[in-house]
Amino acid sequence: MIAAPDSTEPEPEPGTVRPGGRTARVRTAVLRVAGDVLAEQGFAHLDLADVARRAGVGKTTVYRRWGSVTGLVADLLGDMAEQSLPRTETGSVLGDLRANAALVCRTLADPRQGALFRAVIAAAACDARTAEALRRFYDVRVAEWAPCVEQGVARGELPVGTDAGEVVRAVSAPLYYALLTSGVAPDAAAGERAAAAAVAAARGGVFVG
In this protein, which residues make up the domain named HTH tetR-type (predicted)? Predict the structure, then answer.
C-alpha cells in the first residue's frame, strides 16, 4: 500500500501537470486499474475506493487527485491520447489514411482496448463530463493525423480547401459504427474500404469548405 502524501495541498485538475517520480507511479497504477475495470465491467462498476484498493494506493490520494469517477475517466482518456501511436507517413494520402484505418481496427479488435472504448462511449451518452473528455481525446487524435491530409493537399492529391479534420473523421466513423451496431470489431478489409471511401470523397471535393 502506498501511503497518502502528508501535504494538504489540493491536487491539480487531472491532465494539467506532467507528474514525475512517485506521483507518476501512482497515476500509472491508478489509470491502469481504471482501464481494466472499464474494459472488464463497464463504467457503472468504476468506483474510486475500489480502484485505490486494486492499485495499492491510499484512498485519500485517489479522491484528492481525481475527485470523481468522471475526473478519473477524463485523465485516463487524456493519457490514452498521449500514449497513442503517432501518425504514419507513407508519401501518399491514401497510404497514410490506410495506416490510420489499420490502427483504428487494431485498437477496436484488441480485447481490452475495444471493450474500454465501448464502455466510455456508452458512458459519454449519459454523462456530460465523460462526453467532453471523449471529445478531447478525439480532438488530439484527429490533430495528430490531420497533417497527412494537409500534405496530400500540398502534393496536389486533394483539392485546396479540404478540411483535414473531417477527412480523418470520415475514415474512423464507419469503423466505430460497425463496432457499435454489430458488436464485432471491423477487420482489415473494412479499414481499407473506409480509407478508400474517405479519399475518394475528398478527391471529389466533398470536404472542401
Answer: 24-84
pTM, full prediction: 0.79
SS (H, E, C) the chain: CECCCCCCCCCCCCCCCCCCHHHHHHHHHHHHHHHHHHHHHCHHHCCHHHHHHHHCECHHHHHHHHCCHHHHHHHHHHHHHHHCCCCCCCCCHHHHHHHHHHHHHHHHHCHHHHHHHHHHHHHHCCCHHHHHHHHHHHHHHHHHHHHHHHHHHHCCCCCCCECHHHHHHHHHHHHHHHHHHHCCCCCHHHHHHHHHHHHHHHHCCCCEC
Of the candidate ranges 16-25, 32-41, 139-148, 191-200, the one whose mean pLDDT is the lowest = 16-25
pLDDT at residue 19 above 80?
no
Full residue range of the structural domain in which residue 195 is found: 86-203
CATH number at residue 28: 1.10.10.60
Q: Taking the C-alpha atoms of 134, 76, 87 and 105 in order, what is their torsion angle to the nearest 10 degrees?
A: -70
CATH number where 101 lies: 1.10.357.10
Radius of gyration from C-alpha coordinates of the chain? 19
Sign of CA dihedral 158, 162, 168, 170: negative
Q: In whole angstroms, what is the distance from residue 62 CA to residue 11 CA? A: 10
User: Count of residues for the chain?
Assistant: 209
- Residues 126-134, mean pLDDT to the nearest whole number: 87
